[in-house]
Amino acid sequence: MQRKIIDLPRMFGPLVSEWNINPRGRSAGEGVTGSEQVNYGVQPRWEATLNLSGFRPAQVLAWRAIKAQMRGRVNILRVPLCDMHRTTWKQLGIAAPLDPGLPYGDGTLHSDGTGYEPENYFFAPATIEAGAEDVTFNASLFNDALKVGQWFSHNDWPYLVTGIFDEPGGLTRYTIEPPMRRDIPAGGIVKLAATALMAFSKDDEGRMSLDMGKRGVATLNLVEWVNRP
Predict the structure, then answer these.
(1) What is the pTM of this model?
(2) What is the CATH number of domain 1-25+41-84+194-229?
(3) Which CATH number fits domain 121-192: 3.40.50.300, 3.30.450.20, 3.30.1540.10, 2.40.30.290?
(4) Lowest mean pLDDT among 55-64, 74-83, 135-144
């Protein structure tokens, strides 16, 4: 089945919270000592919550369109990890783009009056193999801006930095969670503005009721799409 990927507009991004790695352990029953045994043979995945409480009419309409396109658990959301502690333009040594974004070279904007947002990314200097629990970069590629507790992603696979260590030759080693799920080829794009591919946890996620003030109220659970081709 071909699953369509739908980009979640950035206005929804800050509403996605409680990012958590679910190791997806399965009970293997009690051991001889009486303690529970757990198997961890399934690939871990990110899970998150999207809180849509208090949406105004324009936002309600936008969400209705997104939910209809999702077709329950059939299609996939590309979700930006919009975190208040994410890498900033100032840390990267780049002038921050002004709202509503940057104009193109000829001074024009999109038809809705917005400009584009430049990506925070760099190119992997060497291949990083799936299964790796750490990655080594030249931190000057991104002004040494990546800190413990921040995310990066490749091809919509997000990783959280858990430790930073200086290495010979001016390089920096970053320990990550979860371990690398796919190879990052030499020259592959590594995004500091991380994104993840997420699915509804249930077909009826995102049903939105309207309160007396005509504001939308909904909370839904998202799970990472890990069995992608």
Answers:
(1) 0.82
(2) 3.30.200
(3) 2.40.30.290
(4) 55-64
Task: Kindly list the domain boundaries of the chain, sorted by start residue.
Answer: 1-25+41-84+194-229, 121-192
Cα–Cα distance measured from residue 219 to residue 53, given in angstroms and rounded to the nearest whole number: 7
Residue 185 confidence (pLDDT): 96
Burial class of 157 by CB neighbour count within 10 A (0 to 12, 13 to 18, 19+) = buried
Please enumerate, as own/partner, the contacts of 66-71 that have beta carbons within 8 Å and a separation of 24 or more: 66/6, 66/8, 66/9, 66/12, 67/206, 67/207, 67/208, 69/4, 69/6, 70/6, 70/200, 70/206
- CA–CA separation, 133 vs 102, rounded Å? 37
C-alpha to C-alpha distance for 226 and 229, rounded to whole angstroms: 9
Residue 193 has pLDDT above 90, yes or no: no
CA distance 151 to 46: 12
